[in-house]
Amino acid sequence: MKAIIPVRSGSKRVVNKNIRSIAGTTLLEHKIKQLLKVPMLDAVCVNSEDEEMLFIAKRAGAVPFKRDPYFASDSIPMSEVYANMVSELDCEDVLYATVTTPFITTSRYVDAINMYFSREDEFDSIHSTRRVYDFLIREGVPLNYNPSNFPRSQDLPDIQKLVFGFSLLPRKLMIEKKSSVGYHPKFLEVTDIESLDIDTELDFKIADMLLKNEKNT
Question: What's the pTM?
Answer without folding.
Answer: 0.92
